[in-house]
Design goal:
The protein is of the alpha+beta class. The chain has 2 helices and 4 strands. It has one domain. Helix 1 links the parallel strand 3 and strand 4.
Length: 90
Amino acid sequence: MPIAKLSTGINLYCESYGRGEAIVFIPGTGFAGNVWIESQAEELARSHQVIVHDPRGCGRSTHAKGVYTIDVMAMTSSPCSNTWVCHMRM
């Protein structure tokens, strides 16, 4: 699946399932996006576009040095979601 390449040098791994209105799953700190796949994403993808990603420092996304605050995590998650929603609606 695609990688969202951010201007900050961070690469976020994203996956998208289904079509329709987008639902973005954001895992808790320290978890990769695959935590949602079996439990909820597959069912919801029947009627929605489900977007999951590996947040900064988790899973297949860039493991950058430094402090990961909630604000930093939110700022790096948003572009991945916007990329998928725009890509899938074109």
